[in-house]
What we know:
Elements: H1 5-14, E1 32-33, E2 38-41, E3 47-52, E4 55-59, H2 67-75, E5 82-86, H3 98-108, E6 114-118, H4 121-130, H5 132-143, E7 159-161, E8 164-169, E9 172-179, E10 186-191, E11 196-200, H6 220-232, E12 237-240, E13 246-247, H7 249-275, H8 280-284, H9 291-294, H10 306-318, H11 333-344, H12 347-359, H13 363-376, H14 381-397, H15 401-417
Parallel strand pairs: 4-5, 5-6, 6-7, 11-12
Antiparallel strand pairs: 1-2, 2-3, 3-4, 8-9, 9-10, 10-11, 12-13
Helix pairs in contact: 6-7, 7-10, 11-12, 11-13, 12-13, 12-14, 13-14, 14-15
Amino acid sequence: xxxxxxxxxxxxxxxxxxxxxxxPFSFGGGLVEIGDGTAFVPSFANVSAFSTDDGxxxxxxxxxxxxxxxxxxxxxxxAARLDTAVYSHGHIDHVFGVPVFEEEASTNGWQPPRxxxxxALPHRFDRYILTAGYNSVINQRQFKLPNLRWPTxxxxxxxxxxxRHDIDVGGRRFELHHARGETDDHTWTWIPxxxxxxxxxxxxxxxxxxxxxxxxxxxxxxxxxxxxxxADLEPEVLLPGHGFPVVGPxxxxxxxxxxAEMLESLHTQTLELMNQGAxxxxxxxxxxxxxxxxxxxxxQPIYDEPEFVVRNIWRLYGGWYDGNPATxxxxxxxxxxxxxxxxxxxxxxxADRALELAAAGDLRLAGHLAExxxxxxxxxxxxxxxxxxVFGQRAVEEASTMSKxxxxxxxxxxxxxxxx
Length: 420
């Protein structure tokens, strides 16, 4: 018999199940009811539902591919019309369910639902339309989905707010709070009557996604502040944007405050070194997340990584210059690679040394040499075979979705150029 969502959550917390076997960005199980009038639909991005006398309120609505599946799950729980949908933020896995409910409302002659979000969210949708090609490429790479096409049509909110916005629907109160964290448009929602907190992606059963190397700026310090503000409300149930519900006031407080502690530690360490004049290279190889926090089942680096958070903190405060004068106005990468390959005895020598280093376990250095060899000899099948082997090994040995995605994509590029 398959464990329910709440049973899996409890086993994960107790260490009786591995988060690697229940990745927070997987599709999850079926709808689970959490107290009277509250339901949780686990999906690639979760949906939380609340029944009221005037209809349903949703916090997040599902992704483009799974919106109808989410709708079907909710309809097995309640036949009430959707009154209000709150977007926790504008990432596309959270905002594509409303049109399904609008179709239903039109068919049934119901008043259409309203959508509420932070005032920065429409600007995100505008940017997504402007950069649809770029977002297609980086998300194909990150999630290993070569056929992914970034959408260019969005359901914009009907109502926006700046700092705090309370809404009352059918006798239930929903308090919306803005926080800059993973995004600049994040909303966390507090339902005081039932002591339920919907935090969006401010907690995701993984090391905070505060450093994604292919996405825009994140805000670790403000993120930590929001986590502590949420903890101070003493929630009894935490419904996250990804992963599993956290039930019980002590567990919720621990999850929120320890996530804040991790972000605060990375932020403090990075700023201390920046203020001492350290280069980015020194900082990313010095700063470490507290070891006891990385052992928590809900803070393991299986999606993003603390090292990437450090880079994002540098970018937030220090810009793009990394402290190395050679990279301020660099030579073209292919020219540098060709020069170094000539000094080493040719691209093949670089590739051979990359394989030696990879075999010895020095994958970071092996990656540099394999990439230099490919830049110097972009049409050499043997060089690309070595590059594919090095980055394929890196993908296998990494834990995070971010690193696995980039390294697997690189491996595939070179496998194709090496003749498969």
